[in-house]
Amino acid sequence: MEGEKYGEELDVAVRVVHMACALCQRLQEGLVSGGSGLVKSKDDDSPVTVADWSVQATVSWILSEFFGSQNVSIIAEEDVQTLSQADSAGLLEAVVNTVNECLAGAPKYGLKSPPKSLNTSQVLEAISRCNSVGGPKGKHWVLDPVDGTLGFVRGDQYAVALALIEDGKVVIGVLGCPNYPMNKELLSYHYQYHEAMSKLSPPSEDTWERGCVMYARRGSGKAWMQPPIRGDKKFVWPNSARLIQVSSIDDPTLATCCEPVERANSDHSFTAGLAHSVGLRNQPLRVYSMVKYAAIARGDAELFMKFARTGYKEKIWDHAAGLVIVEEAGGVVTDAGGRPLDFSKGPYLEELDRGIVVCSGATLHEKIIDAVYASWDSSNL
């Protein structure tokens, strides 16, 4: 990618997301198989795990070392408040150990390891460094270390999302989906089933490839997907990357809609009514995290609608990486009024018109937006 605008940033971002996915897979297997109990609740009762802090510290350290900490502005979801509490000593120790284990493997991904293990204060500093508030000017990295933490804890789908915003516009996006299979045919199966079956009869890589990393650069008109790095293999560009493209389906009766799993921040009843009004017949694909964007970007689904309940504010790290990947793959992302999402106002998507609509193409998008206007007055949102 040398010579391309944002080529260096995208190169580093893809490599570090691969690292983060490997870290998360190791930790999720530990949680699912016996549970170390290293999960805490934040002030809003949402869960946060060793993986959230470890990924944030790892990505922060890599970006700061590569580009220079004085040149790096990072907006990310986690802070050190919970981790610094007296009763979190075990959590903090686990995070420090996990970060150092991950960074020690950096050369496998073509990145540099620290000369010696980071100490506790250095890990906390790396997490705390992600305290930018963004804004309309300059470059800002946007990170959701584990998007869909509930999915992660439950052994289900989640994502590692990293994007770069310049002057309020998302210019690159990388989406790591550690449990999202490379092959669409395997979507209906839970990965734990395949894990169990693999021990009995190891499948070929073509048959069962758990996990993928998607990425795109603004203006390229292309979005890509790579398999994860397995075993002792090293990351070498292009790492079997293949182009992905949105579905060509524009008839709502044939479309598949993605929905959030959790009801807490999305109105499923309004979405269901809207789906009925446009003639959606297929069962909705309810999936945790920004994996919904991944599903649309590579043509596994055609539509994602999210209408937040009153008082809920959408965060930019829940949408930035997925947005640019879907758009470069040929899709459309707007608010429910048909306007582009505004990433220039800081950590939140301010002045959002009702909700978010992600479609595989302009024709389907126009039909959905028209239906939103027709259905809104009868809703209770």
UniProtKB/TrEMBL annotation:
UniProt entry keywords in alphabetical sequence: Hydrolase, Magnesium, Metal-binding
Catalysed reaction, written as an equation: adenosine 3',5'-bisphosphate + H2O = AMP + phosphate; 3'-phosphoadenylyl sulfate + H2O = adenosine 5'-phosphosulfate + phosphate
Protein name: 3'(2'),5'-bisphosphate nucleotidase
Record Gene3D superfamilies: 3.40.190.80, Fructose-1,6-Bisphosphatase, subunit A, domain 1 (3.30.540.10)
Gene Ontology MF, one: 3'(2'),5'-bisphosphate nucleotidase activity
Stated role: Converts adenosine 3'-phosphate 5'-phosphosulfate (PAPS) to adenosine 5'-phosphosulfate (APS) and 3'(2')-phosphoadenosine 5'-phosphate (PAP) to AMP.
Matches recorded under CDD domains: PAP_phosphatase
Chain sites annotated for binding Mg(2+): 77, 144, 147, 318
Enzyme class, first EC level, given as a word: hydrolase
Requisite cofactors: Mg(2+)
PANTHER family xrefs: PAP-SPECIFIC PHOSPHATASE HAL2-LIKE (PTHR43200:SF24), PHOSPHATASE (PTHR43200)
Family membership noted in the UniProt record: Belongs to the inositol monophosphatase superfamily.
BP GO terms, sorted: inositol phosphate metabolic process; phosphatidylinositol phosphate biosynthetic process; sulfate assimilation
Record-linked InterPro entries: DPNP, Inositol_monoP_metal-BS, Inositol_monoP_superfamily, Inositol_monophosphatase-like, Inositol_monophosphatase_CS
E.C. number: 3.1.3.7
